[in-house]
Amino acid sequence: MDNLGDADAQLARLKKRFDREQRARAESEAIAERALSELYTKKKEIELLQLITVAANEASTVDDAMRTALDGVCAHTRWPVGHVHLTDPAGALLSTKLWHLDHPERYKAFRDVSEALTFAPGTGLPGRVLEGGKPAWIVDVTKDDNFPRSKAALDCGLRAAFAFPVLVGDEVAAVMEFFSDEPAEPDDAKLTIMAHVGSQLGRVIERRRAEDALRLASQHKSQFLANMSHELRTPLNAIIGITEMLQEDARDANREDEFEPLDRVVRAARHLLAVINDILDLSKIEAGKMDLHVGSFAIASVVEDVVHTVGTLAAKNNNALRLECPADIGVMSADQTRIRQALLNLVSNAAKFTENGTITISVDRAVAETGEWIVIAVADTGIGLTAEQKGRLFQDFVQADASTTRKYGGTGLGLAISRRFCQMMGGDITVESEPGKGSTFTIRLPAGGTSSAAPVQPATPQPTPRARSIDRAPLILVIDDEDSVRDVTTHFLRREGFAVTTANGGREGLRLARELQPAAITLDVMMPDLDGWTVLAAIKGDPATAGIPVVLMTIVDEKNRGYSLGAADYMVKPVDWSALAGVLRAICQSAGRSVLVVDDDDTMRSGLRRVLHENGWQVAEAENGRVALARLAEARPDVIVVDLLMPEMDGFELLDALRSNGAWRDIPALVLTAKDLTDDDRTRLNVGIERILQKRDRHELLGEVRDVLDRCIERRRGENVAVP
Amino acid sequence: MKGVVFNLLEAVVRRDYGDDTWEALLEAAEADGAYTSLGNYPDDEMMRLVGAASAALKLPADDVVRWFGRNALPLLAQKHPNFFTAHKSTRPFLLTLNDVIHSEVRKLYPGADVPVFTYDTSSSDVLVMHYSSPRKLCALAEGFIEATAGYYAEEVSLDQPECMNRGDHRCVLRVAVRKPGA
């Protein structure tokens, strides 16, 4: 009995203990499950923060980072709607177009209402976050007193919401809000993570603001430089232009006594302009915004021109100028203006720093392993330089020593600029000197172009025969807001045999262009009513005026922009009048002329079409010789530009076909080729070819084609005049 | 208090006094008795169990707690030997309580409310440990320390010039350890 009772008691005890063990086990499992679920949540939170951090560092725009955050938070919370409000300068929140919407159509009404609202501090969910700078949670927006969008939310089935600030320091730069389709109790852990998300995004905004500030500062600086140069150069151009006009009048009327003082005004003004240009050049080189305009030109004429220009200065110090330039020095390919500028700088320096001495300019063509070089040396017998002075010579704003500036004047920029130009063209300027004996500055530049002994261009611009007006004088429309510029341009263009009409602004210019259909337009860029870029775009955009060639005349050196907008040419003020006349003449002559471009290279054809079209040519195209023959049969062009190597029917065959056809035999042909021509090739091509151009730099080539075609037309026109 | 402490108490009571005693203690303390090491249970439940044992054994509660500490520590040393084998004697082991032992306890038992000791090591003979906890379980610490000395085969003498159970704001444990024969 006792044993039985003991056994019962033991059983009861064991059962009790077993119950306890079971409960303990259930509890421990519950704890483990909770811990696992917490671990999972933490992992997801870390993933979210990682996603946001990467986006914050790598997103190229603030919007991109925000969008990633919207998607990331919605994926993390499994809430269907997320949205961003940005703080506006007035301190209210503006709704953005940045959304995460699981079902765009379902939440459209809510989206529309949200985007139409702005939230003042304290108003609605975003306003509360804006005011407090802290995350906020709404259990059920449809039951919240301070939720203006509750009706739309109810209609779309949105209930719980939370929002958090994107903070830049203490400032709420934006508010992100998220909505769930069920009511939900506040989750502090979630809001803590969201606060981290907000501060990460804040860094993106902060970084973007810093970048914007830098960019703006740099833009302001460039704008300031551009404005200042405009402000300085505009009156100077007026002074130079009007004085030159007076000089012309004085010369025509044989009033020699007036001529010299006017000349001094012009020279002083030009000097001032040169100083301004130096400073602008240097700042442009520094900013990497200096363009080179490479073309082929006769070396001798440039050098002679410079020597001529410096003549007076050299004579003043009683210096003799000697030029040693072989007659067959030929042409080179480079930026003529910049070489002229560099050489002028060297020769004027030599003249300045030498008294009662000799300045020798020697030009040579040197052949080295690296190719052909043009070497121009300027040697003087002046004060010379010590080794230490030589070291500082090419630095910006530095002359050999400070006292030099006082004695000889100048900005000290010329040499530095000249050297950089030469370096940009693949060459350099070097110096050798001995104090008291003199200095030799040497420009070395790659010859670049062909070494053909015959200069391609006339050494000096041909005076324009007035007899040209056998045709009605071509009408040029001059558009410029400056009275003085219009007067001066009109004066010179009339002297060159053009008819001129002027417009004092963009609107009037556009009207006159449409009404008068001028042969060409000269257009100022900086004008108060409509700027030149806009006017140019309007001219090119209107079929009635699109064919009229436009020459931009400006002090803003943005050639590429001009050409890309369809300008035929680009002149930088102060305008070289004879060059302008040359350009306009070429344009007026080629107007209505037709050219057939035969090349299998699309890029080359379209480049030629654009350049030639802008100059008034009518352009037909063919991708090989066979197609070219078909085009010839349709219409006879005034000139043919032909590539040699093409599929189906090459350039040689096409040219043979042309010569064997009586109707086409006398069409001038211009050969473009990338081929190294053999003697046989040359013999074969020898008849009836206007010129052979090697394909190299496309830009340069287009310019050459244009020049050759213009001259070719001019010559034939002369023949036509001579033989009625 | 963490369930692991209840598990230790249960283990030593069962081992030394038998299953019936443990059942009796649970009954007397009106304790539930289902303890899992990761769970949290009211401090008061532990105090009731200690009170019941004190009444059953006719010993002061502090002596019961000290006995518990002395007997529980070897079980801990068995379960986590690395903390003990890293040292050769009691003093360096005691100095690692805050930074090593208790920080590991927090990792294993999240939310464990372990005490923080401060040390006065100015004497090389006597290590002074300051203990301050609302649980006032300095006796448990004493038991643990005595057993630790036992683990390293050292002799220890302990006294408490200040004790929270005597109305002081903290307990000060003076621990003097000797190698036998030294």
Please write out the topology.
The complex is a heterodimer of chains A (724) and B (182).
Chain A: H1 2-58, H2 62-77, E1 81-87, E2 93-101, H3 108-116, E3 118-119, H4 124-132, E4 136-138, H5 150-156, E5 161-168, E6 171-179, H6 188-252, H7 256-286, E7 295-298, H8 299-316, E8 320-324, E9 331-334, H9 336-352, E10 358-368, E11 371-379, H10 387-392, H11 402-408, H12 414-424, E12 428-434, E13 438-446, E14 475-479, H13 483-495, E15 499-503, H14 506-516, E16 520-524, H15 532-541, E17 550-554, H16 559-564, E18 569-572, H17 577-590, E19 594-598, H18 602-614, E20 618-622, H19 625-634, E21 639-643, H20 651-659, E22 669-673, H21 679-685, E23 689-694, H22 698-722
Parallel strand pairs in A: 8-10, 14-15, 14-16, 16-17, 17-18, 19-20, 19-21, 21-22, 22-23
Antiparallel strand pairs in A: 1-2, 1-6, 2-3, 4-5, 5-6, 7-9, 10-11, 11-13, 12-13
Helix pairs in contact in A: 1-2, 1-6, 2-6, 3-5, 6-7, 6-13, 7-12, 8-9, 9-12, 14-15, 17-22, 18-22, 19-20
Chain B: H1 3-17, H2 19-29, H3 43-57, H4 61-79, H5 81-85, H6 90-95, H7 97-108, E1 118-120, E2 126-131, H8 138-151, E3 155-162, E4 171-178
Protein name (chain B): Heme NO-binding domain-containing protein
Domain Heme NO-binding (chain B): 2-158
Organism (chain B): Bradyrhizobium ivorense
Kindly summarize this structure in a few lines.
The complex is a heterodimer of chains A (724) and B (182). Chain A has 724 residues and is an alpha/beta fold.
What is the fold-level CATH name, i.e. the topology of the largest domain in chain B? H-NOX domain
Share in β-strands of chain A = 15-25%
Average predicted confidence as pLDDT of chain B? 91
What's the N-to-C terminus distance of chain A?
A: 154 Å
User: How many angstroms does the end-to-end distance of chain B come to?
Assistant: 40 Å
What is the count of structural domains of chain A? 4
